[in-house]
What does this fold into?
Amino acid sequence: MIRVALLPGDGIGAEVMRGPAELLEATKSQVPIEVTGTWPVGSTGYVECGDLLPRRTLAACEDADAVLLGAVGDHPGVDLGGQRSEAALLDLRAHFDLRISIRHVWRGEGQPLTFVRNLLGGAYGPRDTHIESDGISPASDLIVLEPRRIEEVANIACDFAARHPGTVIISADKANLWATGRLWRSIASDVATRRGVTILHRLIDRCAFELAQRDLPNAVIMTEGIFGDILSDLAAGRSGSIALCSSASVHPGAPACGRCVGIFEPVHGTAPHLVGTHRANPVGAYLALAALAEWFQETAVFGRAVKLAVDGAMHEGPWTGDFAAVPAEEATTEAVAARINRRCLEILETGVVA
Ligand code: IPM
Ligand code: MN
It folds into this structure.
């Protein structure tokens, strides 16, 4: 049984997570997932418990195999008194050593585009690598990349390519400027040679251009944390909506703390301007649930069913406002979620994903 701690979080987080939570409830007799929560985090944690990452939420995460998160950040009407809301997310990543990020961008036909990157270290270094300015002194952010961490990212990209025949590995770096970029390129190259797989190298700016200009082939893009943060949003934009990207922050191997090995969330963030409008697109939350379920062998079939249900809903519509051609044809968050849930239950019933 896989235990999932549900943290809807802030902004539209609770709205987009309602559908997936209902789906988990409706499938609990056939899918080995048990849900705990909901647990408060971020601005919502601050309001309920005076803490961005309340102790009981952290304990619930430690006691779960994975966390399903809506969004952490700003919430309408909440003043954090100078604290930065993303701190809860960064603390969770550090606590569970979730040092790898895997993102899938839905692309309509065929396979999603996948990004693998470091999520601790590099541009995502510990607090003391980010020096604030008082307005007069300079600010600085130090990028330190350990060879073994680059190697780990490269191996995960190779594993992914091996599981998805026909997938090219693209390594994107800034080797023409940064020492870390040159190290990245040389290690990526060595690992690919050792594993006997083809790798294409791109400078990060060229890679961004190619992503924006045309659809890349079936690819897994391995790149430094901050580059992947930016490129994955770009790829989602190219696909038509920021809601088309799932984000997994994972710890490779046995859990570092408690039993938690990953946080799975949509990439879109809190979108405070959409709160209460029923216009938020829930697809990212479903893609996050699918990524979570596919991470564990026991629930992989369910993950594929969720993905198929999303495919169906995306191909047919009606869609939320980010996709609908004219406002009159917009569907609400709840209507899209209900349709995905119905499809998923049908898919599970007919057993087409076994
Ligand atoms: C993301 C976000 C975070 C990140 C921020 C909030 C720190 O942009 O998850 O994509 O850069 O990792
Ligand atoms: Mn981001």
About this structure: The chain is about 40% helix and 15% strand. The two ends are 18 Å apart (CA to CA). Residues 229, 233 surround manganese (II) ion (ligand 2) (CB under 6 Å).
